[in-house]
Design brief:
The protein has 182 residues and is an all-alpha fold. The chain is built from nine helices and no strands.
């Protein structure tokens, strides 16, 4: 149960945001509905997310695995749900996405993918557990721009997941839209 009402005060900005959300995602996103109680925060959040969507130096699979690893470490069910759906829409292998919470025991990942998920977990824990060796290993596979994008995406997901969890937002059913029925 959300800790804040998901029906913000009505305004033109809110109606436009809801229209865009329904058109793009098929539903009004709960984080947007929660954040909409503060219009300046909502506008900043929307600009930020639209800007993030244009980052494209990092392989989409690596980005998705990093984001979902961070969300899983924090325990944000909304982020895992939406992240799974959004990543499958971008062509990321669903088997890799499903196995993120148990990536250490899964055989579907490459060495680089495992390094990325370990880095995401190390960045997400408090205190940080990132080591020089961990970054050096990533630098063998990623250029400077890719490493910066990876690091920033994990940082952004930390913010998203912590905000959504603190506001009590839980799975919104996005993953159900892309699962193949049994």
């Amino acid at each position: 149960m959300a800790r804040i009402p998901l029906d913000p005060p009505r305004s033109l900005t809110i109606r436009l945001t809801e229209w865009y959300s329904r058109r793009t995602y098929g539903a009004v996103l709960d984080p947007g509905a929660a954040i909409a109680h503060h219009r300046q925060v909502l506008r900043t959040y929307l600009r930020h997310e639209l800007s993030l969507a244009r980052w494209n130096r990092l392989d989409p699979t690596l980005k998705a695995l990093a984001v979902l690893s961070s969300a899983a470490t924090i325990g944000c069910s909304w982020c895992l749900d939406f992240g799974y759906w959004e990543s499958t829409q971008r062509g990321v292998d669903p088997a890799k996405l499903r196995n993120v919470p148990r990536w250490r025991d899964s055989d579907v990942y490459s060495d680089l993918e495992r390094q990325v998920m370990a880095y995401a977990e190390a960045m997400t824990t408090t205190p940080l557990q990132v080591t020089d060796d961990m970054v050096a290993e990533l630098r063998r596979h990623l250029d400077d721009a890719q490493l910066v994008e990876l690091t920033m995406m994990i940082s952004v997901e930390n913010s998203r997941s912590r905000t959504n969890s603190a506001l009590g937002l839980t799975s919104q059913g996005f993953r159900d839209r892309c699962e193949i029925p049994a």
